[in-house]
Amino acid sequence: MLFIWRVPHLGLMFYGAGKNRGFDRGLGMNGVDGVLSMMLMIVGLAAWVNGIAAHVLLVRMDKSHPNVLRRVGIQNVDWWFACLRGVFALAMTQQGLSVPARTRWVLRGVVATYAVLIVYGIVTMLRL
After folding, report:
1. With bands split at pLDDT 50, 70 and 90, how would you rate the model's confidence at 71?
2. What's the rounded mean pLDDT across residues 54-74?
3. Which of 20, 70, 101, 115 is most exposed, with the fewest beta carbons within 10 Å of its own?
4. Residue 89 vs residues 69, 72, 86, 122: alpha-carbon distances, Å
5. ∠ CA 118-109-95, rounded to 5°
6. Which 3 state secondary structure label does DSSP give 2?
7. Beta-carbon-side half-sphere exposure of residue 52 (alpha carbons within 13 Å)
8. What is the pTM of this model?
């Protein structure tokens, strides 16, 4: 039985017949669509890794130094708007100088990831 499966965002095509299945990496990405799709995948992967690291850091800070988080407006590490605003404050303002530099860089990565995803969403909507 012959089957063909395409993954347009990655430009991949899987094909096969019976037990002898093949794999073909066709470069089916055309122009801007392919670049934006690959950017979204890379940023999405970075968002997962960075988001997990930031969550672990914030939970540890909530246990060890809750006053630092309360000062920037983070009551719970729940990733709602108040938490995101506090992450931005810790990463980008003078209020975050009390946290270690590595923690600030991880939080800056979260802020940058959200910024890139918002820009990608706006570009995608404008192209419709």
Report:
1. very high
2. 93
3. 20
4. 10, 6, 5, 24
5. 105
6. strand
7. 5
8. 0.66
